[in-house]
Every structure is written in structure tokens, then in C-alpha cells.
């Protein structure tokens, strides 16, 4: 459904209270809301194959598209009237900001992937269920597992991939007597439990090492970077004093929205709430930072961007469900463009239809000269001949069956008549004997 807005941001579906289960998609929503508020809509997408590059998020504007958070940010910064989040950074601050962003996307991204894709309770209870609900048939049967397997090498390298089935297969098989007594089973369960607790504690220690970096970087500030009063021009700034100099909190930068997006997903109260408990107990400043970024981007419920309705994913068999198997770049888009087509768009439309027409004529000529049409006509004629012969044979067999039935009835009638004659003769003989007597 068209919303009449300039831009449409395609993101993964929302999970619980988060606007999406992907941190890059959440960061893209914050980025556009802070840069070009009121000029874009959100369309939830469950199949990455629909994206031009096979990755979400991506931004569409007419016939143009930008894939990936960095490409979207560079594209938006070039628009007229857009606010550049990192424009006030300079020198060392800009270099540090880029380094922190890379670190956050890698390390915090691993924690989010572990939380949503590796932990079995969260995967089967939340992430997979969400994808299976949103995806149409047949994508719902293979896209979730394919998405999870795409994170597996990354999490194995970070020692954050935990598969309970492999741990349960360790050890020798139990005999019938051991199953009866249960002694060996209890010992094995105890060892497995200790191993799981140890692996879980390793994950918590690894997470605390990463979160400590951003907790120290944030300190007691509301945002990661604070600038002097000459930079406080876009948001309602709140002053604070540092080294006897008055500073102001400026608006969120790209580092703020990226870290806040990851923290929001890690704090979701899922079935296995390992990171939710960790953040609640030890990192209240990071939670306050994420809430502050959300309050600036969306001060009220009405400030959330418009939702562009996508085709229903719950439909069973439909043409749209099978067309989503192919990238949008290979299919003709039926979406209406609200603005008047430009000269370049009209020229590309003529070229596109000319190409389709030339391809159709070429295919028809090839099939004609190659004899496909004559072959098809010959097959059609022979098929009709075979059908006529079968029909004639069936009629002939029906006539023969009727003749056989009539002959059988005649023979039966003669047999009955013969019996009657014999009975009559026997009766006559008896009468003759009686007369003689």
C-alpha cells in the first residue's frame, strides 16, 4: 500500500517491544527519524531475497534503492534539508566515533545474535515463531533455518554458539540395566548440567567485558559525546559543568543510535533472559541511555513513522508468495509511483518494454524456424487420432457385449423349453400306463 511519502525503509519484523529484531534495522529507523522526520515510511519485510542486495535494511526511493546502514546514512546526508548526525565531530572525535561504531557492530552484534539465534529457548520460542508467522508459504519452511545458519560461523568463531544436542551425544550408550537403575543417567545429567553452567558463565563474562567498555565511555552522561554551546542548535540541550566549563548535551550521534539499538534487543524479556538480567542488575546507565535515545527519536506514540502495509504473509498458496522467491530486481513491480515520472524514467520504461518485445519476437521466430510449432501441431493431430481410435474400439466392444447377452438369453430360453417338453412327455406316459391298468 502506497503512503505517498518520499522514502520507504524496509526492515525485519518487530519483536516484542522492539521495532525490529535486527539492530541494524532499528538503527536505520532512528537514523531516518532524526535526519528526515516525517518523510519516510516503514515496511516490514520477512524475506531478505526481496532486497536488491539480499540484505536488510534497505531504502527505496522511486526506482532507486540503498542497502545497508552505512549506505543509507551516506545517501540521507546528501538530501536537502536533512540533519547530519555526525557533522559536529572533527579530528580525533570522528576517528574515535568510527572505531567505536565498528566495535559495537561486531561485539554487541555477536551478543544479539547469540541471544536471538543461538539460545534454543529464544530461537524456538520467539525468533523462529515470528519468522514462520510473517513469511508466506513456502518461504516459512526454509528461510528461518537459512537465516540462523548464516549466523552460525560468526558465533562459532566468537565461542557463542551452543548446541545442546551435541553435548548430549557425548559418552557411551547406556545399557538396559543402567537405564533401570538410573545411576549412570544421573551422573551424566549432573556432568552435563555443570558443563552448561560453565559455558553460560563464560558467555556472561564475555558480555560484561564488552558492556564495561561502553559503560565507562558513557560515564554519567546521557549521550556519548558532549559539545560546547555552539553545537547545541538542533535539540533541546541540557547543560552540565565539566572542568569549570559549561557544556551541553547535543542530539544522538550515529554511535548513540547503534549502541542503543543493540541494548534494546539485549534487554528484551525473552524465555532465556540471560542478558536482560545482566543489564538490569549491573548496567542501569546503558539502559537509561537507550531509553533517552528512544525518547528523543520518538517523543510520543504519534511520532513513530507510518507503516506501509505489505502483502499478507499468512496467505497459503498465492502468486505473491511464489513471486517472493525471486529478487524484486528480476520482477516487474506493480507499485504505483505517486510522483509524475521523469524524463529518465519514461526513457527507461520505453527501453524496458522494447527489450521485452524484442525478446518475445526473437523467441517466436526461433520456435517457428526450429519447427516447434509444426511439432506441436503434429503431436496434437496424432493425439486426436489416438483418441478417436480408442473411442471407436470402445463402441465396438460395447456392441459385441450386447450380442453375447442376446445369444445367452436365447440358449437359456431353448433350454427351458426343452425341459418343459420332457416334463410333458413324462406326464403323457404316466397317463397311458394308468389307462392300461
From TrEMBL:
Residue ranges crossing the lipid bilayer per the database entry: 353-381
NADP as UniProt keyword: no
Domain Mitochondrial outer membrane transport complex Sam37/metaxin N-terminal residues, every copy: 25-148
Biased composition, class Acidic residues, residue ranges: 396-437
Region (Disordered): 392-437
Main location: mitochondrion
Keyword flag Aminoacyl-tRNA synthetase: no
Keywords carried by this UniProt record: Membrane, Mitochondrion, Mitochondrion outer membrane, Protein transport, Transmembrane, Transmembrane helix, Transport
Pfam families membership: Tom37
Subcellular location: Mitochondrion outer membrane
Domain of life where this protein originates: Eukaryota
One annotated GO biological process: protein transport
InterPro entries: Mito_Protein_Transport_Metaxin (IPR050931), Sam37/metaxin_N (IPR019564)
Organism: Cerrena zonata
Signal sequence coordinates: none
GO cellular component terms, A-Z: SAM complex
PANTHER family xrefs: FAILED AXON CONNECTIONS-RELATED, METAXIN RELATED
Protein name (database record): Mitochondrial outer membrane transport complex Sam37/metaxin N-terminal domain-containing protein
